Amino acid sequence: MPSQQTLKQPVTYSGIGLHSGNRVQLNLLPAQPNSGIRFRRVDLDGRPELEAKAELVIDTQRSTTLGRGSVKIHTVEHVLAALAGAGITNAIVELDANEPPIADGSARDFARLIREVGVIAQTDTYEPYRVTSPLEVSVGETHMAILPHDGFKISCTSADKGGRFTQFFSVEINPESWEKELSHARTFCFFEEIEYLYRNGLIKGGSLENAIVIRDDAVLTNEPLRYREEFVRHKILDIIGDLALVGVPIRGHVIATKPSHHANTELAKAIVAQQRKPIQAAHAFTPPPVPETPAAPAKSETRLVAAPVAKPETNAPVILDGTTLDTIGVMKILPHRPPFLMVDRVVAIDGNKITAMKNLTIGEPFFDGHFPGHPIMPGVLQLEAIAQVAGILMMRQAENIGKLAYFMSAEDVRWRRPVRPGDTLIIAVEMTKNRGKIGKAKGVCSVDGEVVSEANVTFMLVDR
Asked: CATH number of the domain that 370 lies in?
């Protein structure tokens, strides 16, 4: 198991607090093994401490706030991201106010200070949280999922309510990629939000020195953008900080669409809840193995049988070139079921290419909230449709029948125009890699001959 880590020596940083606009001093201190990350308010009697734990989240309006009783600490996500990105598992964050300095709106200064003082391995080890089965959280327009993965990866799509500045970025998180690819990304807001934020005292210390402001199609900033996809990269920075509230490093692949602090911390809470479930409870969701030679149980034996789960039927059709499948045929191959089945019919299969369709009616459940009065199909579900169609193609191999295809990542994602009720979505997929358990494919979704979205997707086949 990996070693726990802490700072080699203390380090201090001073700056302005985003909420209060007051001067704040932050001290990052080494901590003993198994102590985790703790925030200490040195400005209060007794120097009370708050653990960086998901259950202490009390507010997620524009930032993440921890609290217990009268003790609160706002905007913890950037410091937590810097510590998690550097692989630090134990540290004390001392503050003489109720929030860390906002710095330049990124975590760049915190990452630099940690690098300069260094990280030291401790004698104790830790057991990372390893995702064994998918978890999903949906909050309004936000959809978060975490899937099994050997490392820690985040794939994120960011956009505002009007679809402006839609960006996608995917990255494997390690200390090098964290500091180079993410730590410099600054926070941002839209011009129409500023009045509300000021009125509610949320950004008394906010300025173009520590935030990017988007007004219509203009980007207001005191320096050029640091990354082409700076907005979505900052969203990933926030996800790292919020998921640090799980309490241990994560081994999994997070897929996020329009993330928010609320959804991030809800996913963290879901992970903590899954951590605490007895291993036996997890087994209850797995169909019992079928013995090669059925045998009657002894009279005194009590057998617990899992509840039926949706799975491909044993008489799944053979998938040959020229095969077409109706909905029943599709469900004999894929384990997905409504409302998460994104394929109605397979209309053509030719070698490593497949074409399928999805008829979209106003009755689709996602149209109710996406968006009221202006229903459009979420882009992430178009990606899911591509992955499901690609999964059908991979089931041509006999050894893959009955397996699950976990959606791992998407690159070169483009959404061209909205998909609305009444549209027939045509999903054309070409397999570009099919080696072992990993599949890669190029997918294009179209409506009436016009491309509406496209992406390169990667997925992994696993045993049920």
From this structure: 3.10.129.10
> Which range in 18-32, 97-111, 279-293, 386-400 is most confidently predicted, on average pLDDT?
97-111
d(Cα 135, Cα 270) in Å, to the nearest integer? 7
Residue 239 lies in a domain: yes
What residues have CB less than 8 Å from 95, skipping those under 6 apart? 24, 25, 26, 27, 39, 40, 41, 42, 43, 73
Instruction: Take residue 252 and report the two structure tokens written for it.
Output: 């999994």
The DSSP secondary-structure symbol of 305 reads -
Q: Are 230 and 255 within 8 A, CB to CB?
A: no
pLDDT computed for residue 52 by the predictor: 97
CA 456, CA 408: separation in Å to the nearest integer? 11
Structural domain boundaries enclosing 151: 3-276
Q: What is the CATH number of the domain that holds 56?
A: 3.30.230.20
Active site residues: 261, 370
Please indicate, yes or no, whether residues 63 and 196 belong to a single structural domain of this protein: yes
Let me know whether 262 and 341 are in one domain.
no
Where does the pLDDT of residue 205 fall: very low under 50, low under 70, confident under 90, or very high at 90 and above? Answer: low
Give the pLDDT confidence score for residue 433 in this predicted structure: 83
Same domain? 35 vs 139? yes
DSSP letters spanning 308-330: P-----TTPPP--TT--B-HHHH
261 & 349 share domain: no
Alpha helices, H only, 247-352: 261-276, 279-283, 327-333
Q: Whose structure tokens read 């992430």?
A: 380
Residue 299 inside a domain? The answer is no
457 vs 233: CA distance, rounded Å: 20
User: CA 186, CA 232: separation in Å to the nearest integer?
Assistant: 10
In this structure, are 457 and 393 located in the same domain? yes
Model pTM above 0.85: no
Tokens 């809840």, residue located: 273
